[in-house]
Design a protein that fits this description.
This protein has helices at residues 11-51, 63-74, 103-113, 161-174, 189-203, 216-229, 258-266, 280-288, 310-321, 336-344, 354-384, and strands at 132-134, 137-139, 143-145, 180-181, 208-211, 233-237, 272-277, 293-296, 326-329, 349-352. By secondary structure, the protein is α/β, with parallel strands linked by helices. The chain has a single domain (64-398), classed as TIM Barrel (Alpha-Beta Barrel). An 8-stranded parallel sheet has the order 3-10-9-8-7-6-5-4. A two-stranded antiparallel sheet has the order 1-2.
Length: 404
């Protein structure tokens, strides 16, 4: 099992114990050492060859090292705080913070943290099933990457677009799940084309691609590119509609009417997802216009200050449209326990954002995979200690009530 990111066992203490044991054993065996020195010297080359790791073996990646490198690359855009709660980065947009006062970001984090898991150990769940599917694609767990992008203006520019997309998609693939390819309001078409080229050439289209709410003609043009690349699904993050001031001159970023959304849904054979759903009313409309999936999201608290947390609105939305569309959710997914909470509130799949930004900057593809494996391990333990056998059937009584 992957070492937990919160494990603080002292390396100094371990080395001290090992040194003491070695000293004691050495004193007891010193006569034997003298007698066998020549034999040991003769055998040393063969032993060394047998014990040496293969040339392509990698040292085990440690979460502390990943976070240290991520902090060096992301600072001051992101401080890589021990708790990613939106306090230090409030108002830093562009960047990784929440817009304005940062309250919407903090709402996501605080509401989710106020919900507790109900521990149950009188059951026969020993190896919970984390596997699920998303639009026919098998996932090792109900977690994908979130929609994160804009390496130059949001992340400090220490990675190229190609490097970032490779890290996110590759790390998610290595963890047995899916990544998303993002779009940017300020990105010209050639930036989008470079991302899609990575998707097609390196990953055979195995990802979901989201597009900003540009004009329908511009969106459909990009839908065709995703289809040609073999993408799994397409989405629009309609919650970006208020960011028109950052659009490239000549481009339009706009809210959408139900008629416009229906046109988009009908324009592609790929599953169509609408991201940015925060009300029951709009969840129902999304289903009615043909969306195969909805993402309950306030854009990480980065578009409208003082919006409620996704954990606050998700249960009512799930009650209204569960089974009619795939329900995805983002908002402060930091640990496997967070995933279990959202599943208990009615989500089918969770989107993890900022931890994977750190993983990508800290160790590229391997860093993203490590973050995902940690979340998977935490989810496994959480399910075992709450008596949940499968992520496809998480009862509401796994969590405490009425605290979001």
């Amino acid at each position: 099992m992957t070492k937990d990111m919160h494990d603080t066992e002292s390396a100094t203490r371990r080395n001290f114990i090992k040194a003491g044991v070695a000293a004691g054993v050495g004193a007891l065996l010193s006569p034997l050492i003298v007698k066998t020195a020549q034999a040991a010297a003769e055998a040393a080359p063969a032993v060394a060859a047998a014990a040496a790791p293969a040339a392509n073996d990698k040292p085990k990646l440690k979460i502390g090292d990943v976070l240290r490198v991520a902090r060096e690359k992301l600072y001051p855009i992101c401080r890589v705080c021990p708790e990613c709660d939106g306090v230090a980065c409030a108002g830093e947009v562009p960047g990784m913070g929440g817009i304005g006062s940062g309250q919407a970001f903090k709402n996501n984090y605080n509401a989710l943290n106020r919900i507790d898991l109900v521990m149950r150990t009188f059951h026969d769940v020993k190896k919970p099933d984390l596997g699920t599917t998303l639009f026919g694609h098998k996932l090792s767990m109900p977690v994908t990457s979130a929609v994160t992008g804009g390496v130059t203006y949001n992340m400090g520019g220490k990675m190229t677009e190609e490097e970032y997309v490779t890290a996110i998609l590759g790390g998610c693939m290595d963890a047995g799940t899916l990544g998303w390819v993002a779009d940017g309001i300020g990105d010209k078409m050639d930036v989008f084309e470079r991302r899609i080229a990575v998707l097609k050439e390196k990953f055979g289209g195995n990802a979901i691609v989201t597009i900003k709410p540009k004009t329908n003609d511009e969106i459909i043009k990009r839908f065709r590119m995703v289809e040609e690349a073999g993408g799994i699904a397409v989405a629009i993050d309609i919650d970006s509609a208020g960011r028109a001031a950052r659009a490239v001159p000549g481009q339009t970023v706009e809210p959408k009417t139900p008629r416009q959304l229906a046109e988009l849904a009908k324009s592609t054979k790929l599953p169509f997802i609408i991201k940015g759903i925060m009300t029951v009313e709009e969840a129902k409309i999304a289903v009615d216009v043909g969306a195969r999936g909805i993402a309950v999201s306030n854009h990480g608290g980065r578009v409208l200050d003082y919006t409620p947390a996704t954990a606050t609105v998700l249960p009512a939305i799930a009650d209204a449209v569960k089974g009619k569309a795939v329900i995805l959710v983002d908002g402060a997914v930091r640990r496997g326990q967070d995933v279990l909470k959202y599943l208990a509130m009615g989500a089918d799949v969770c989107l993890c954002g900022r931890p994977l930004v750190r993983g990508a900057h800290g160790a590229g593809r391997d860093g993203v995979a490590l973050m995902m494996h940690i979340i998977k391990d935490e989810l496994t333990v959480a399910m075992t200690l709450t008596g949940v056998a499968s992520v496809k059937n998480v009862p509401a009584n796994v969590i405490t009530k009425g605290q979001a």
